[in-house]
Specification:
Blueprint: H1 3-9, E1 16-18, E2 21-24, E3 36-39, E4 44-47, E5 52-54, H2 56-64, H3 68-78, H4 86-89, E6 101-106, H5 111-119, H6 124-130, E7 132-138, E8 141-149, E9 155-159, E10 162-166, E11 172-174, E12 180-184, H7 187-196, E13 206-209, H8 220-223, E14 228-232, H9 237-249, E15 253-255, H10 266-272, H11 275-280
Parallel strand pairs: 12-13, 12-14, 14-15
Antiparallel strand pairs: 1-2, 2-3, 3-4, 4-5, 6-7, 7-8, 8-9, 9-10, 11-13
């Protein structure tokens, strides 16, 4: 469903249109300057005033303050979906995580996780310093994942086939008595930064790992404590939106994503190091 058309049915009309970007007064609050943007080509939205965004489903959940089943009922009463579509979208994202049960927390000793860390091009000693091995159960299946702790006692969980979290969801701050702070979306970007700088004689900044871009604006009071804030956010709609928001706050915010231009994030860039050079050595390639 086209977001621009759907907003029109709710009585929201754009104040400005620039190519694929449609700018609105935020549907979530009263404002005089349009800060709510819809990219019509990607069919996603981003509220620069609150630092949140997503799909039409994400918008509906926030706009109507309801759960997915109620939203789907509301949408289907307005628009006649084909019945076969409903089962594929009615299950809330992350529902399986609600039955996740932690069985054990240890240092990293799984060979599969060793290989996972190696594949992500992270130094093992660095990963082992900041992560735990979490053994968890979902349904009748037991799995192991890297667990990155947050400030409220929860964990971000990652393995090659699973991406989830253990509540409560929160940011992770690491303090090194610095006047600067480096900000990352996810912990693999943070570990990548430490890996590529481990042999450098640089003074470590303080670090903020958002674990979700929904925490970017909420973390402003923490970031404002520092003289300089370096943003290592993703090259995507949400990450770039957060970076622009930060740059609008103050000159102390610096967008460092130019380091990995052409890649989605810092870890993807780190994984690509050396691959381009190898390809360039093949016969016939310049």
């Amino acid at each position: 469903m086209d977001l621009v058309d759907y907003l029109a049915t709710l009585g929201h009309k754009p104040k400005k249109v620039s190519a694929n970007d449609y700018w609105y007064l935020s549907p979530f609050r009263d404002e005089k300057t349009a800060s709510f943007k819809v990219n019509r080509r990607k069919n996603v939205w981003y509220d620069h005033g609150q630092g949140v965004g997503g799909s039409l489903i994400d918008f509906g959940l926030r706009y109507f303050n309801c759960q997915i089943p109620a939203l789907l009922e509301k949408l289907t009463s307005q628009f006649p979906f084909h019945p076969q579509i409903l089962p594929t979208i009615a299950k809330p994202q992350g529902q399986a995580e609600s039955s996740l049960r932690i069985l054990d927390i240890t240092s990293i000793n799984s060979m599969d996780l060793f290989q996972y860390i190696k594949d992500r091009r992270i130094d093992f000693h660095i990963a082992n310093s900041y992560c735990k091995q979490i053994t968890f159960e979902i349904g009748n299946k037991t799995s192991k994942a890297l667990g990155f702790p947050n400030d409220n006692g929860g964990y971000e969980l990652r393995n090659p086939s699973f991406k989830g979290s253990v509540s409560p969801k929160a940011t992770t701050t690491i303090r090194n008595a610095s006047k600067e702070m480096s900000v990352f979306e996810g912990f693999f970007d943070f570990l990548s930064y430490l890996t590529i700088n481990q042999n450098q004689s640089l003074q470590m900044t303080n670090f903020l790992v958002l674990n979700s871009t929904a925490f970017f604006e909420k973390s402003r009071p923490i970031m404002e404590e520092y003289e300089k804030v370096r943003l290592y956010l993703d090259h995507d709609f949400t990450g770039e939106g957060c970076a622009k928001l930060g740059l609008s706050w103050s000159q102390k915010y610096q967008d460092e994503s130019k380091l990995y231009v052409g890649h989605k994030d810092l870890n993807e860039w780190v994984q690509s190091i050396g691959k381009a050079q190898k390809r360039s050595c093949r016969p016939g390639l310049k």
